[in-house]
Amino acid sequence: MGWVRSFWLRWKSLKLPWRRTFLVGQDLAGNTFWEFKDALNANRFRRIVRYSPLAHHGDIKISPQWHQWLRHTRYEAPSLEEQEADVIRQTNMKQLAQLADERWASKPSFLDKPRPQPAPITKPRDPGGYVGQTEPDDKEGVRSAVDTPAEGSAKPAKENPWAKNAAGPSEKWQPESWTPGASRR
Question: What's the CA gap between 30 and 67, in Å, rounded?
Fold first, then answer.
């Protein structure tokens, strides 16, 4: 910032009695923040921001400290040192978040596919020790009593109570199509 602009900003920040608007401060992007007396409510100053003429209106971002000041949540305007410290804090938070994301990505997830087991490094002395699992024959092992019935006991099939014929007249009723008639006048 040149000495002419800094002198102009100091001059505009003086609260002289004939002046209607007073410069309060500026942010790091070059936006200026102003106060002026409200015509309807003389006891309270109104606060506005005038954006930098070099910035496009879609690219303008106001810091939370200045938002607090604009909405009278904060009495004192933020200083340039406070704004610089906030920018440093934001960059540190972004770096810490990136490190946390990298740590999170390096840990295995339960949703990932399981990795194949590595083969043994040395050959075993007994090659039969590493035989793959075989399925038991029908007559070997334990059979499931739920899936297959026992050989000697065959239960008679129960009747389905819903399969019997309908007895009442309303059991086979189906709605008819409706065609509206002509309206009377």
Answer: 15
The model's pTM is 0.51
- Could you list the pLDDT tens digit for every one of the 185 residues in the chain? 678 877 777 777 777 777 778 889 889 888 999 898 877 777 778 888 988 888 888 888 888 999 999 998 988 999 989 999 999 999 999 999 999 999 998 888 777 777 777 776 666 666 666 555 566 666 655 656 565 555 555 667 777 766 666 666 677 777 888 888 888 77
Residue 77 to residues 33, 34, 55, 91, 178, Cα–Cα distance (Å): 9, 10, 22, 23, 75
Residue ranges of alpha helices (H) inside 39-172 are 64-70, 80-106
Cβ atoms within 10 Å, residue 78: 20
| Distance of alpha carbon 19 from alpha carbon 13, whole angstroms | 10
Angle, CA of 154, 155 and 161, to the nearest 5°: 150
CA 12 to chain centre: 44
Backbone angles phi, psi at 133, to 5 degrees: -75, 140
- The pair of structure tokens assigned to 6 is 């800094």
Place of tokens 């305007």: 77
Reduced to 3 states, what is the DSSP secondary structure of residue 68? helix
State the residue for tokens 């020790």.
129
> What is the per-residue DSSP string for 44-58?
SEEEEEE--TTS-GG
